[in-house]
Amino acid sequence: xxxxxxxxxxxxxxxxxxxxxxxxxxxxxxxxxxxxxxxxxxxxxxxxxxxxxxxxxxxxxxxxxxxxxxxxxxxxxxxxxxxxxxxxxxxxxxxxxxxxxxxxxxxxxxxxxxxxxxxxxxxxxxxxxxxxxxxxxxxxxxxxxxxxxxxxxxxxxxxxxxxxxxxxxxxxxxxxxxxxxxxxxxxxxxxxxxxxxxxxxxxxxxxxxxxxxxxxxxxxxxxxxxxxxxxxxxxxxxxxxxxxxxxxxxxxxxxxxxxxxxxxxxxxxxxxxxxxxxxxxxxxxxxxxxxxxxxxxxxxxxxxxxxxxxxxxxxxxxxxxxxxxxx
Amino acid sequence: xxxxxxxxxxxxxxxxxxxxxxxxxxxxxxxxxxxxxxxxxxxxxxxxxxxxxxxxxxxxxxxxxxxxxxxxxxxxxxxxxxxxxxxxxxxxxxxxxxxxxxxxxxxxxxxxxxxxxxxxxxxxxxxxxxxxxxxxxxxxxxxxxxxxxxxxxxxxxxxxxxxxxxxxxxxxxxxxxxxxxxxxxxxxxxxxxxxxxxxxxxxxxxxxxxxxxxxxxxxxxxxxxxxxxxxxxxxxxxxxxxxxxxxxxxxxxxxxxxxxxxxxxxxxxxxxxxxxxxxxxxxxxxxxxxxxxxxxxxxxxxxxxxxxxxxxxxxxxxxxxxxxxxxx
Lengths: 327, 328
Fold this sequence. Notes:
The structure holds 2 protein chains of 2 kinds. Chain A is an alpha/beta fold. Chain A has 11 helices and 12 strands. By secondary structure, chain B is an alpha/beta fold.
């Protein structure tokens, strides 16, 4: 497998009057060509900031890329010039966000918004781009694309808007599609349509997808591998099958157990006690130590080194390091 | 079988669409359109459906937070809509609601003891401020908050803790029936499970009856005894949870269930995904005949013209579909 994207020790911090927020702290992962990597975690765990850092979309200031490398085909996104990153955005890396109403410009017609990146990145004339836009809308299965291309975003339903967003994101056939909670705002039956569409198109244009969501069900339907984040840290990375069949980090275990699934039979849900810690005021050591039932003294002093089991199951937990009870 | 605590008969709630300079009524959004059902004491009725299907309007109209257009709701044998103001006020202690967003449903200027205790004083459940404080501490304790947190303000709490305050506020007046309107939808997974367990415990401790409104089928499956499925203002299927999930009758229920992403990998292999065509039609212009016919994979001509009968197909299991009724 060839790696398309490799992120090494990414640190994206935010500086505010209340202190430093380490939104992504020492995050490392890779995405293979043609693969879908899921990033899962609760609100504030840094999954969105990590994904936005990839194309340098985090506003600086207040944000700052403190360290690390983001290698797309060997090119470091954090080092390239502003001009180069603009070429890459939309062309090599494109994004789909959660709220299609706020990420589409309300005063421009759908066609013009899709055309824009085609004209910019692929040098098409307005006329060509318009025709290509209709083709893209057809590709994402919007009924009557010839009409919709001249519609404004408000005229479309949520599901249709998200399809238009996907059309826009795929217009230049990007190598990496970053989908940040793309179906969270949609209804279940519409979500099923959009997920189906994304899987189909991914095959068609041979792109890799980074799929960010808090919904474990969606992860299992969409992703090849999963990365679990907690309070800015990567706590576990494994194949989707491994994560659900054999979760190892106490947080992952708790997260999966506490979500009622269609097949849940017990009468009480598993509970992770306590609350997600405030990023302004993280506990020392492992951020999960305040809620973990296996907590040891060393958990409170330093974040554990990552351990790799079975070749590719990465865990950051002292239970699995030398001398740990599950080692 | 225990008695029905809530009975809803032919309930309708239409919202007028006004347009033009004189705000003339030009149409109606039929948010709840001829809905009938009952809930037995001590049971949880889950209401599922997609956005705009009228599930929240149903919950609010039942409590007379919204005035009904037509129909009847009886609570413990009394007609809710035929009550005087005073009777209605007394009824409020028995019927409570918990909303989705714990940020906007708590007054930011009041400390927790006032939020939770205000209604107790109002309704004469406690006689003095001192008694109120004791009662508040007891109730918030049951909801997993500490006594010293009673004097804090909502902004000092996280989302999950705020939802605990909302639950404490609802429980404070010793209700019998609570409408939970997407009560856990805004919460993170690990917090959601805490609140769901809390709601279950409260139900056991106080013998409560819930109307549990949610778009999340896995949560509804977990907490409910019975489930009603809504589609554009109507209940298309209702029955005991087991029947709804194992043997759905209505094609919409079938599609809805198949669309829920599950992380049970053993299920994945056998599951057939039914992808529905098109969008949910607007409740301002619901399709003729069966409202689901525009998206239904089994639709016949009769579905476009005739409204199917809402019928008890098996014991306690109702559905509204021509196919199920054997019309074709």
